[in-house]
Amino acid sequence: MKVDSSLDLPAQRAGWARHAPPAFAALTVAGWVVLACCVNPAQFADSIEQYNWAHSLELGYWKHPPLPTWLMALAICLMGASPATAYLLAALCLAGCAFCTWKIAQRLLPPGSSAPAIAVVLWSLHQGFSWRAQTYNHNTVLVLAIAAMVWATLVAVQSRRLLHWGIVGLLAGAALLSKYQAVVPILGVLFVLWRIGVLRGPQGQRRGVALALLVACAVFLPHLLWSLQHGLPSYQYFKQSAPVLGYSERIVRWLSFLTNQLRFHLPMLAALGVAVLFARARPAEPSTGAANSTLVTQWFWGLVGIPFLVLMAIVLLGGVKLQSFWGLQTMQFVPLLIAWQISRLPFRIRLKPLVFAALAIHLAGAFLYMRSISSPTAQRSLTSADRIFPARTMAARALADWQAATTCPLRYVVGPGFEAGLISVYSGAYPSVLEDGDFHKSPWIDRADLQRRGALIIGSALPGPGLSSPPQMHSMEVPARRRGAAGQTQQLYWSVTPPREPCPG
């Protein structure tokens, strides 16, 4: 018997339950981001590199596709370059992701049940969407784009309108322009469309899928051509950062990845454990029928199962060194899967105890986060740059040294992307950053203009991109950011190469 590819929309629910779950998730995201913005002495390197690249709108950058940087450039045009810019973008992206996750849950999970609300409350407890919500990087935009694409696909499957399929393609293209990892969840959605009969169904539906693929390719094509013209820079970066592992190392790395993912999910499992204590021993929902159950199963295979299996194959068969942050998108729909499984149990999880448990965990986490910054003992055990690096102090001292040497404005900082970027962002001047003194990484910087206007050069060993010899070095002791270097310090040096010509005006 053929499974119907459409899903019944849930009944409209009156009162707070319609809006409270996504509002709760959005508010927790905002709370974590505001906390980080208020107490962090610095930001993660991933956020800082977006500032570095946003000086120029390119079709691609040496590490990643361009969409997150375009959004950063737009935000800077609207509100200026400040440390708060990245925090605001992170909050908006993850709040949007929470809303899209809610809409997906309403369409996939049992109609009229508390399962969608449970899913979104659990989603808010994932560490990537709580204490790491402050980070604005390619994963931040990716999870939003994928959530929006999945929601749009569910709408298009039901409406069968070409316009909706075109939106699916636009969002898939946006996901690809965020991070190449988007290929995996896109393949997962195509797998679902095949399994539920859309690719074998009416011609109009097949045309819709074809239109979505065409639009996605059209959106991605300019970046692809740019990447080919520039020697596939993202692939070259990937080869350097993800070396091939031996067979025993692959197993160890995979187990380490699973352990980290379990750690990231522990807060939601803890809240769920508390809620189970208050569960009611009666069936949670009426049966939705075998057809709908089979349909939802196929969707979760595409959203969770396929990405998980692909990632496992990449590690165990391909030998790629797995990074823990790859799991953020791979696991982003796990809260929905958990909520669906809960809805099939012979007891009912009450929403209020779950919300109170989640809120208590968020507050406890925020307290521990603040303590890790304020406690000298805790500081000695940290290597997290956002909580230990004295960005404002370093930027103020470097800018003061520049202003002592010349009355010209600071236009360029040369050095490692993180340290140079911190000076750029936290000094308030927002000069361009020549990453590692490499013009290939910052091709919008003109060598002659840099030599004419001078630069502040920073690093543990000062690079020399054709500048005159620095007259004087300045230094500052900063926390070491190396893995396993908790509590250690390193010396950071900078020097001023003044402009060759008088300042205009």
SSE topology:
Layout: H1 20-39, H2 45-53, H3 67-79, H4 83-108, H5 115-123, H6 138-159, H7 162-176, H8 183-195, H9 203-229, H10 233-241, H11 247-277, H12 290-316, H13 327-330, H14 334-343, H15 351-374, H16 376-379, H17 385-388, H18 391-405, E1 412-415, H19 417-426, E2 432-435, H20 447-453, E3 455-459, E4 473-479, E5 489-497
Parallel strand pairs: 1-2, 1-3
Antiparallel strand pairs: 3-5, 4-5
Helix pairs in contact: 1-4, 1-5, 1-15, 2-19, 4-5, 4-6, 5-14, 5-15, 6-7, 7-9, 8-12, 11-15, 18-19
Describe the fold and architecture:
The protein is mostly helical and 505 residues long. The chain folds into 2 domains: 16-367, no CATH class; 389-497, no CATH class. The chain contains 20 helices and 5 strands. The chain is globular and about 75 Å long.
Beta-strand residue percentage? 5-15%
| N-end to C-end Cα span | 80 Å
Q: What would the average pLDDT be, to the nearest integer?
A: 89
Report the oligomer. single chain
Order of helices and strands: HHHHHHHHHHHHHHHHHHEHEHEEE
**Rg, Cα atoms, Å:** 25 Å
Order of strands, main sheet, comes to 2-1-3-5-4
Tell me the number of structural domains: 2
Protein name: Glycosyltransferase family 39 protein
Organism: Variovorax terrae
Keywords: Cell membrane, Glycosyltransferase, Membrane, Transferase, Transmembrane, Transmembrane helix
Membrane topology: Multi-pass membrane protein
